[in-house]
Amino acid sequence: MKIRELEPAKLEQAANMLKAIAHPMRIAILGYLEDGKKLTVTEIHELLKIEQSTTSHHLGILKDKGVLSSSREGKNTYYFLKHCSLSNIVDCISNCTHG
């Protein structure tokens, strides 16, 4: 499907997802969740080397805008890409920033 074929509501949703992703830490989070990985807030905050509360804030934005989903397993909540094709955005960003 081409972008021009999307209805206005879908375009709005896509724009909101892109706005949510458009932050260095959130792009990094997507990078850690590539290839179907599931990580907890603690694991992500340790990888990013930022405060856990800041990590939770970023995860909340990504989840609210439909970029991430989460599942509870025991005491832990695991975050993962809602759509595995979102990994393509990370690949695109990586390829477009070389050079």
Automatic annotation (TrEMBL):
Question: According to its UniProt record, what is one Pfam family this protein matches?
Answer: HTH_5
Answer whether the UniProt record assigns the keyword Transcription regulation to this protein: yes
InterPro entries referenced in this protein's UniProt entry, alphabetically: ArsR-like_HTH (IPR011991), HTH_ArsR_DNA-bd_dom (IPR001845), HTH_MetalResp_TranReg (IPR051081), WH-like_DNA-bd_sf (IPR036388), WH_DNA-bd_sf (IPR036390)
Q: Name one GO molecular function term.
A: DNA binding
> Record's superkingdom?
Bacteria
Q: Does the keyword Chaperone apply?
A: no
For this UniProt record, the keywords arranged alphabetically read as follows: DNA-binding, Transcription, Transcription regulation
Residue stretches making up the HTH arsR-type domain: 6-99
> SMART domains, alphabetically?
HTH_ARSR
Protein name from the UniProt record: Transcriptional regulator
Q: Which organism is it from?
A: Labilibaculum filiforme
Q: What is the lineage of its organism?
A: Bacteria, Pseudomonadati, Bacteroidota, Bacteroidia, Marinilabiliales
